[in-house]
Amino acid sequence: MSHSTPVDRPASESPDAAPTQVAGQPSAHPSRTTELASLKIRLRAALRQFPDFPSPGILFEDILPIFIDPTLHEALIRSLELHVLQSGNGQKPDVIVGLEARGFLIGPSLALRLGASFVPVRKQGKLPGPCETQAYDKEYGQDFFQMQCGSIKPGQKVVIVDDIIATGGSAAAAGELVKKMGGSLLGYVFILELEFLKGRDKLQAPVFTLLAGQEGKTT
Ligand SMILES: O=P(O)(O)OC[C@H]1O[C@H](OP(=O)(O)OP(=O)(O)O)[C@H](O)[C@@H]1O
Ligand SMILES: Nc1ncnc2[nH]cnc12
C-alpha cells in the first residue's frame, strides 16, 4: 500500500470550471465543441491526487482511474481525437509521438483513430539500435529521452502526446528529438496541465490540454 492517500479536488477545479482554450486556434465545429465539453466533465471527475508522491512537496495527479472504466477510456481517446481533428488548420498528423510511460497509454489508440503512425520516446537504454538522445529536467528529477533513428521521416507532420505537462521539460526534450529527426511539429496534446509551472512556455509549438490542475498553487 502506498504511503499517500488521495485528496479531494478544490472547488476551483470543479467539473464545470472553464475549459482550457488555446488562443489563436481556429473556431471549432459546434457539435464537436459541445461533445468535448461534456466529455471533459466526466474525465475531470475521475482524476485523483496524492500528496508527497513520488517525493515530498509534489502533489501527484493520478490519471489511471480513467483506464479502469472503459467508457471513460473511450471518452478520453475521443476527446483527444476531436481536438486533433478540429485543430492544426485542417492538417492531420502523419505521426503520433508518445512519451514513456504514461504517454503510451494514449498515443497508440489516438494514432489508430487518426490513421497515423505511433512512435515512442523512451527513457535512455530501453531502445535497440541507433538512437537520438536528449537530456531534460522534469518536476521531480532529471532524465534522458531517446528516439530510434529513422522512426520519423523528414517532413512528416507530428503531434506529441503525454498525460501531463508540469515543468514542460519532458515535452520540450521530445520536441527536440522530433526536430533532430527532421519532423514538422504540429503541436502537443496533454490530458492535464499544471499551469502554475508554466511548462507551455518551454514549448515551440501549439499546446492543447484537456484539463487544468492545481490552479491555486504558485512556484
Ligand atoms: O513536464 P514535466 O515536468 O517534464 O513532467 C511531466 C512528465 O512527468 C511524468 O512522467 P515521468 O517522468 O514521471 O514518467 P512515467 O510516465 O514513466 O511515470 C509525466 O507522465 C510526464 O511525462
Ligand atoms: N504532479 C505530477 N503528477 C503526475 N505526474 C507528474 N509529472 C510531473 N509532475 C507530475
UniProtKB/TrEMBL annotation:
Q: Which GO terms describe its cellular component?
A: cytoplasm
Task: Tell me where in this chain the Phosphoribosyltransferase domain is found.
Answer: 75-187
Q: Where is this region: Disordered?
A: 1-33
Q: What chemistry does it catalyse, as a reaction equation?
A: AMP + diphosphate = 5-phospho-alpha-D-ribose 1-diphosphate + adenine
| Pfam families to which the protein is assigned, alphabetical | Pribosyltran
Query: Sorted alphabetically, which SUPFAM superfamilies does this protein's record hold?
Result: PRTase-like
Q: Which residues form a coiled coil?
A: none
Q: In which pathway does it act?
A: Purine metabolism; AMP biosynthesis via salvage pathway; AMP from adenine: step 1/1
Cited InterPro entries: Ade_phspho_trans, PRTase-like, PRTase_dom, UPRTase/APRTase
Keyword Heme part of the UniProt annotation: no
The answer, when asked if Ligase is one of the entry's keywords, is no
Cellular localization per UniProt: Cytoplasm
MF (Gene Ontology): adenine binding; adenine phosphoribosyltransferase activity; AMP binding
Q: Which UniProt keywords apply?
A: Cytoplasm, Glycosyltransferase, Purine salvage, Transferase
Q: Which family does it belong to?
A: Belongs to the purine/pyrimidine phosphoribosyltransferase family.
Describe the task this protein carries out.
Catalyzes a salvage reaction resulting in the formation of AMP, that is energically less costly than de novo synthesis.
Q: What is the protein's quaternary organization?
A: Homodimer.
Q: What name appears for this protein in its UniProt entry?
A: adenine phosphoribosyltransferase
Organism per entry = Monascus purpureus (Red mold)
Q: Which gene encodes it?
A: APT1
